[in-house]
Specification:
Layout: H1 3-7, E1 12-16, H2 18-28, H3 48-61, E2 65-69, H4 75-83, E3 88-93, H5 98-101, H6 114-128, H7 138-142, E4 144-148, H8 156-160, E5 165-168, H9 174-187, E6 191-196, H10 204-211, E7 217-221, E8 226-231
Parallel strand pairs: 1-7, 2-3, 2-5, 3-4, 5-6
Antiparallel strand pairs: 6-8, 7-8
Length: about 230
């Protein structure tokens, strides 16, 4: 399914159009329908284009097990549960804590400073929780397991076994991105790893990390903040 895309790609980051991904999807998934929610307006949530990238890859891969790093308010976990009827979805976020609650946030700089933005997101998640999961049916909610833990300290192989779809959208510092990526690659033998915030103006560590992957073929979908790596398809 990805043969032509991989054959034409170079080592490093490859820019592709959304149409290329949609064309691949159309060849393996004929149904034109998706289940969705209105895109959220909260800082840190995914855009409509990001959503289409996620769901396109999900429908192409058709995973039975999904791991998401960075639940935040639960939007992306919700749309994955709504569209992947046979998948178990594990979504990871930090537990509530007084330390997170006491983080100092300069609201005037959250659109410009990555550290301040992350502090804001952690505080909001700590306060509001996974509110979008409330939109799921009982059957959908049963397939979602919320894991309150530090993703960098989890043993993914023990916790999840083999996984074919990982969405990384947790902490944006380089050491966290690196550890989350290593964890993801430890459990994906055939599937896809997707990173959010590639091309972000404030969370530049994601772009820097992936741009330095000189031995990997990484794909960035133009017009989105999503980059992905295909594993086991060559």
């Amino acid at each position: 399914m990805f043969k032509n895309l991989l054959a034409s790609a170079n080592i490093g980051v490859n820019e592709i159009k959304l149409k290329e991904l949609l064309t691949i999807r159309s060849k393996v998934h004929e149904c034109p329908k998706i289940n969705t929610l209105f895109p959220p307006v909260e800082i840190g949530s995914i855009t409509l284009v990001d959503q289409i990238v996620l769901l396109s890859l999900a429908q192409i891969i058709d995973p039975k097990k999904v791991v998401e790093i960075g639940t935040y308010l639960g939007y992306s976990a919700s749309i994955l549960a709504m569209n992947l009827k046979n998948a178990e979805i594990y979504t990871i976020d930090l537990p509530k804590s007084d330390e997170v609650e006491s983080l100092q946030v300069d609201r005037d700089s959250i659109y410009e400073d990555g550290a301040q933005n992350d502090n804001y997101l952690r505080k909001k998640q700590n306060l509001d929780g996974e509110v979008y999961l409330e939109n799921l049916s009982d059957a959908e909610l049963k397939r979602v397991e919320l894991i309150k833990a530090d993703s960098t300290k989890l043993n993914f192989a023990e916790a999840f076994g083999n996984v074919s779809f990982v969405f990384i959208d947790g902490g944006h510092e380089s050491h966290i991105i690196e550890k989350d990526t290593l964890n993801a690659r430890s459990v994906v033998s055939k599937g896809v790893i997707i990173w959010h915030d590639f091309g972000s103006n404030i969370h530049t560590d994601v772009t820097d990390f992936l741009s330095a992957q000189k031995d990997r073929k990484i794909f960035h979908v133009l017009g989105s903040l999503c980059a992905f790596e295909l594993i086991g398809f060559e």
